[in-house]
């Protein structure tokens, strides 16, 4: 059975795997996949992503079958797996894959998702929800879809006792400090202890927005921190902690 997995990367020092899934149920205007479809932490992609303007092929040439994925992973020493995308929840094989990884490798399974679609979560240990915007009109403008179901799913995941984190991208003069604070207030209504990470936007897609500066990100972290106990950020100038290699 074919999966939506088109790319696998591995950080040996962290014993961490990333399985990259193709396909999405949103049309985010600033999606990184408009600039590069492969992992931004690889030596051959990071410069083009963060500084250049090169574009990748529109679609991967090949997708892995379920058994191919399992065979590839048998040769690797890992303890953590990230299911990421585009949007991993669209793959009907994902729950079966998460179960197989639990049983065969005893891995800690992390799902990165936009939260629009819930799947069976028995074999998902942690969920990271990317919240694009708080105002529904703004969310529709950026993604093409409403955020109402996402907020409901976020609260539902918390009620299920699932370990939960949230992330947002700071886009100056668009998804700005005011908007990020509204997202932080929403998360706090669910649970003030949910960790929240704010990432600096860097240009992707045909958009007028500029890159967020480290100082702007730092300021917004302070504002969100008025509502939440654990707020962190990626300012865009961080060094990699571990070397990342391409497996497929």
Describe this structure as you would to a colleague.
The protein is an alpha/beta fold and 248 residues long. It has a domain at 5-167 and 240-246: TIM Barrel (Alpha-Beta Barrel), CATH 3.20.20. Helices cover 29% and strands 20% of the residues. The protein is built from 7 helices and 9 strands. It has helices at residues 43-50, 66-73, 94-105, 136-143, 148-159, 177-190, 214-224, and strands at residues 5-11, 16-21, 80-85, 108-113, 126-130, 163-170, 196-200, 231-234, 245-246. The protein has a 9-stranded mixed β-sheet with strand order 8-7-6-5-4-3-2-1-9. Strand 6 (163-170), helix 6 and strand 7 (196-200) form a beta-alpha-beta unit. The model has no long low-confidence stretch (mean pLDDT 94).
Brief summary of the model shown:
This protein is α/β, with parallel strands linked by helices and 248 residues long. 29% of the residues lie in helices and 20% in strands. It has a domain at 5-167 and 240-246: Alpha-Beta Barrel (TIM Barrel).
């Amino acid at each position: 059975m074919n999966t939506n997995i088109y790319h696998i990367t591995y950080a040996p020092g962290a014993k961490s795997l990333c399985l990259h899934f193709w396909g999405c149920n949103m049309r985010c205007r600033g999606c990184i996949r408009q600039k590069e479809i492969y992992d931004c932490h690889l030596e051959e992609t990071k410069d083009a992503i963060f500084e250049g303007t090169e574009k990748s092929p529109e679609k991967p040439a090949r997708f892995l079958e379920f058994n191919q994925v399992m065979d590839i992973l048998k040769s690797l020493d890992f303890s953590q797996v990230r299911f990421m995308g585009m949007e991993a929840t669209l793959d009907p094989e994902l729950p079966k894959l998460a179960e197989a990884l639990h049983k065969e490798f005893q891995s800690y399974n992390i799902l990165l998702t936009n939260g629009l679609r819930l799947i069976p979560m028995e074999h998902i240990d942690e969920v990271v929800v990317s919240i694009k915007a708080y105002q529904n009109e703004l969310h529709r403008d950026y993604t093409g879809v409403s955020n109402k179901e996402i907020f409901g799913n976020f609260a539902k995941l918390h009620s299920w006792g699932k370990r939960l984190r949230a992330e947002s991208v700071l886009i100056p003069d668009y998804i700005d400090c005011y908007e990020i604070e509204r997202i932080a207030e929403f998360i706090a209504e669910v649970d003030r202890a949910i960790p929240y990470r704010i990432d600096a936007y860097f240009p992707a897609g045909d958009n007028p927005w500029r890159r967020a500066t480290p100082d702007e990100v730092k300021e917004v972290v302070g504002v969100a921190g008025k509502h939440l106990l654990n707020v962190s950020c990626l300012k865009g100038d961080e060094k990699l902690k571990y070397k990342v290699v391409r497996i497929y």
